[in-house]
Amino acid sequence: MATDGATPNPDHGRPNELPEHLERDFDRRALVPRLLVLTILGAAAFLEYGHGHREGHWIVLLIYGLTTIALAMSSRVAAGHSWLPWAATITDAGLAVYVIADHLPRDAHDLLLATDAVSLFPAFLLLIQTGLRLRRDLVAMFTGIVALGWVISFALLVGSASLPAPKSPNALGSRQALAFISFAAAGGFVFYAVHRMRLVWSAILRARWDRMLLSRFLPEGVATEVVRGEEAAEIAERHACLMLIDIRGFSGLARSTPSRQIISDLLSFRRFVHGAVSRHNGIVDKYLGDGVLAVFLDGTPEQQAVRAFEAASEILRPLDTWKSHADAPSGIHVIATVHCGFVLAGVFDDGRRAEFTVLGPAMNALPRMERRSKEANLGVVVSKRFLRLLLPSIRARIHTRPVERRPEDGQLPDILSVRFHETDVDLETGTAP
């Protein structure tokens, strides 16, 4: 299995759908906190909190309410437009600045009024709401606009020399400085929280993206382990059962069959083999022309052998397979070669391509076994080492015949031809009788 080694960038392309995903319909869902702000401010206007004209409060609240509704409707019509979140954030910040400026104490007596809660409530609530977008730039802009508006409003108030009590500026300055520092600290905290949440979400999205890519080549469980960097992804020596499935007679068929039909037959064969291997916890490592290399790494050596054997049995069984259809190609049959041993297995990544595969002497012996099987016109061959791993109950289901060794078979493992007792499939030739 090989994939493009370029790691999906969390800041570009599909793995980073975080901002777009969160922005979609955000302003429609943000109606509740904004309506809550409007309710509180409406009550304050009704009680004549603040120093502006009562009609002015209602005009500002009406404008904000209409803007909120317009933004909520635009979130559906103009979804994905970059201006929408900026417009919403500027609107929220403008309201927060207006409320803060309107509730700044005008004299010493105002310092005793409980208007601070009303004036600061929109700023803090809308700051949190802006943070829910998980956009650092919007959080920074909202905090900056409110802070700048706050400072300008306070400077204009103090510069007007409208405070009659001499100590009022000091008392006012202390209270406003404390409130301002609290808001700035809250803005910094929300900004940091958004930064951390983006890192977490980016990691989650990257893992999902990688798992989606790998799941096309690996079973879901193995793909998850590879993404997590767990044992399946590490290059290590481990025991594996190896199975090579091939179509005998396919080359001759390709010379006399239209290319489109050949491709269709080959893809059908691959889908079927891939399904059978995956159902038995195996991994399709490579497609080799009209052949398929499968690896069984999960479990003990004995469990691997059972799974490889059952997968081979399912592939060679003509029931509910591509060979059972009326329009299936004729004159060909499927052969299998099965071996086992210790191999180096894991994700081999050179920085440009990543490949989950196996290497080692057992892997090198598999094509030699397959070549010897073709020379002897056999259907299924297994190594003696693999046969020893099978349970007695499984060995009772098959008949084995040793394949004669030749002088040139020095590096070839001892192999046996296999035939089932209990099915209609003749595993010695790979065809139905």
Structural class: alpha+beta
- Taken as a percent bin, the fraction of beta residues is 15-25%
Backbone CA Rg? 36 Å
**How widely separated are the two ends?**
35 Å
Main beta-sheet strand count, sense and barrel state: 9 strands, mixed
Integer average pLDDT: 76
Can you tell me the residue ranges where pLDDT is under 50 for at least 5 consecutive residues?
5-16, 319-327, 423-433
| Number of E strands | 9
Instruction: Give the count of helical stretches.
Output: 15
**SSE arrangement, N to C:** EHHHHHHHHHEHHEEHEEHEHHEE
Proportion in helices:
40-55%
Shape: elongated
Tell me the domain tally: 2
Which helices and strands occur, and which strands form pairs?
Elements: E1 2-4, H1 18-23, H2 26-29, H3 31-46, H4 54-77, H5 83-102, H6 116-131, H7 136-159, H8 168-214, H9 220-228, E2 236-248, H10 250-256, H11 259-279, E3 283-288, E4 291-296, H12 301-316, E5 333-349, E6 353-359, H13 361-375, E7 380-383, H14 384-389, H15 392-395, E8 398-402, E9 415-420
Parallel strand pairs: 5-7
Antiparallel strand pairs: 1-6, 2-4, 2-5, 3-4, 5-6, 7-9, 8-9
Helix pairs in contact: 3-4, 3-6, 4-5, 5-6, 5-7, 6-7, 6-8, 7-8, 8-9, 11-12
Transmembrane segments: 31-50, 56-74, 83-101, 113-132, 139-157, 177-194
GO molecular function, one term: adenylate cyclase activity
Keywords: Membrane, Plasmid, Transmembrane, Transmembrane helix
